[in-house]
Design a protein that fits this description.
- Helix 1 crosses helix 2.
- The protein has a six-stranded mixed sheet, with helices on both faces. A four-stranded antiparallel sheet has the order 8-7-9-10, with no helix packed on it.
- The protein is globular.
- It has two domains: 195 residues, Rossmann fold (3-Layer(aba) Sandwich); 94 residues, no CATH class.
- The chain is built from eight helices and ten strands.
- Helix 2 links the parallel strand 1 and strand 2.
- By secondary structure, it is α/β, with parallel strands linked by helices.
Length: 312
């Protein structure tokens, strides 16, 4: 007799596919926020299952800070090409040149500068929905998100003004200028993501696995040493993000647990060379994956403040 029982991963998969199909049915111009990180890699696999044999009916959108890992950019471009998808890339550098974004003196991280770039891209392409890979287990501000997260005409998020989602029914109605952020992986955990990657045999950027890299100690984190600046006549984009004489610097065996840009991503010492190694390491971890993100350490409410202003 056939069994119709769904295991844990199958249940999460069907829930996420349902959310993606709701997006396709309810919105006119949705986009997938694809960075090449592990969560957005899972989103792409779920979208394949939701819409194949047709092409994925969403544009891919990525906002670059200008400080990305080269391995991540290469992976992102190649994966979009393999899926025959349109990839739209907007950069903080372009926004600074056009006056769309303004750098704060003394601030090294560009994560906050991604906000006007993202909102500008939403306005440019008239996206009414952006699908992201955020999960509730990542960070306390993201734990407040619903599957369908309403943003007002200014792109702002009000955690006290969330729409109810009773019986998995989603209110997708928008007025002109408003948009929705949708998070199909809301109920997934970091372990679920890696187990799904293993189950589906998905490729991920090699920086998730153990490799040798030159790093330096800043505060309580190991940060990657940025690449050498070779363009004469132009300011070093990594100024302030290089180790000082007082900061310890050494080559170490490490990997990333969560990917931001090179200025914000804390490296963890790790011998993990396979997905099974990563799953075992995550199970034993006592710090959340975003505990290695420098941009979340600015204050207790750093992520929530950015999200209220329009962050991912």
């Amino acid at each position: 007799m056939s069994s119709y029982h769904l295991d844990h991963l199958q249940y999460l998969e069907t829930e996420s596919i349902h959310v993606l199909r709701e997006v396709a049915a309810e919105f006119e111009r949705p986009a997938i926020l694809f960075s090449g990180g592990k969560d957005s890699i899972c989103i792409l696999r779920l979208a394949e299952k939701a819409f194949r044999p047709s092409d994925i009916p969403m544009i891919f959108l990525n906002v670059e800070t200008g400080h990305e890992f080269p391995e991540l950019i290469d992976f992102r471009d190649r994966r979009a090409e393999e899926l025959n998808a349109k990839l739209v890339v907007r950069t903080v550098d372009e926004a600074l040149e056009k006056g769309i974004a303004t750098a704060t003196p003394g601030q090294i991280s560009r994560n906050a500068l991604q906000i006007p770039v993202l909102l500008g891209a939403i306005d440019e392409f008239q996206f009414d929905c952006c699908i992201g890979g955020a999960r509730r287990d990542e960070e306390k501000a993201r734990a407040k998100e619903r599957f369908f997260s309403f943003r007002d005409a200014f792109g702002q998020w009000d955690p006290k003004n969330q729409r109810p989602e009773i019986w998995s029914l989603y209110n997708a109605r928008l007025n002109p200028g408003e948009n929705m952020r949708v998070f199909p992986l809301s109920n997934w955990t970091e372990t679920d993501v890696w187990e799904y990657i293993k189950k589906e045999n998905l490729e991920v950027p090699n920086i998730y696995f153990s490799h040798e890299r030159e790093c330096f100690r800043r505060g309580d984190q190991w940060l990657p040493v940025p690449p050498v600046h070779e363009e004469s006549g132009k300011a070093d984009p990594y100024e302030g993000a290089r180790p000082s004489e007082e900061e310890e610097s050494r080559t170490m065996i490490c990997r990333v647990r969560t990917i931001a840009d090179m200025i914000s991503t804390g490296m963890i010492e790790s011998p993990a060379e396979s997905i099974d190694d990563i799953i075992t390491e995550v199970a034993a971890a006592r710090v959340t994956e975003r505990g290695s993100r420098a941009d979340d350490k600015a204050s207790e409410a750093a992520m929530e403040d950015r999200k209220k202003a329009g962050y991912f």
